């Protein structure tokens, strides 16, 4: 089963709203981490996110990255993060719809504030 175009658009719209409401800004081309679409300065350092926009995928994915792994250890060690690389990714199978990965993103963002 694949996400499909309709659900992918819904997922992207929801993640965009969550990130905008939380104060994230779109990255710019000159940003060395421009593979991540969104960024924000937090008490854990700069945090980046990019929702996957592939309707052929079987997973809803949100790729995240903490630039300063020392500041982010508390977050990275407590979930889907990698304390060495700074990566924090959210993946959920498409059968459940976009609600669960969006909720996981909201919960993570709450920890950042």
Task: Looking at this protein, list some descriptive labels.
113 residues; alpha+beta
Class computed from helices, strands and strand pairing: alpha+beta
- Number of strand elements: 5
Number of helices: 3
Low-confidence stretches: none
Helix content: 25-40%
Span of the ends, CA to CA: 36 Å
Which of globular, elongated, flat, extended, rod-shaped describes the shape?
globular
Name the beta content range: 25-35%
Following the backbone from N to C, one meets helices and strands in this order, namely HEEEEHEH
Give the biggest beta sheet: 5 strands, antiparallel
Strands of the widest sheet, in order across it, are 1-2-3-4-5
**Can you give the mean pLDDT?**
89
CA gyration radius, whole angstroms:
14 Å
What does this protein structure show overall?
The structure is a single chain. This protein has 113 residues and is α+β, with helices and mostly antiparallel strands. It has a domain at 1-56 and 91-113. The protein is 31% helix and 26% strand. It has 3 helices and 5 strands, in the order H-E-E-E-E-H-E-H. The protein has helices at 5-21, 73-76, 99-112, and strands at 25-26, 38-42, 45-51, 59-66, 87-93. A 5-stranded antiparallel β-sheet has the order 1-2-3-4-5. It starts with a helix and ends with a helix.
């Amino acid at each position: 089963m694949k996400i499909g175009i309709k659900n992918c658009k819904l997922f992207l719209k929801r993640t965009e709203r969550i990130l905008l409401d939380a104060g994230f800004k779109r990255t710019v081309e000159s940003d060395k981490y421009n593979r991540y679409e969104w960024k924000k300065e937090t008490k854990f350092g700069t945090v980046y996110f990019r929702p996957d926009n592939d309707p052929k995928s079987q997973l809803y994915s949100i790729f995240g990255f903490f630039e300063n792994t020392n500041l982010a250890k508390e977050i990275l060690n407590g979930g889907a993060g990698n304390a060495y690389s700074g990566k924090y990714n959210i993946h959920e199978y498409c059968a459940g719809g976009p609600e669960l990965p969006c909720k996981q993103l909201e919960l993570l963002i709450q920890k950042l504030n």
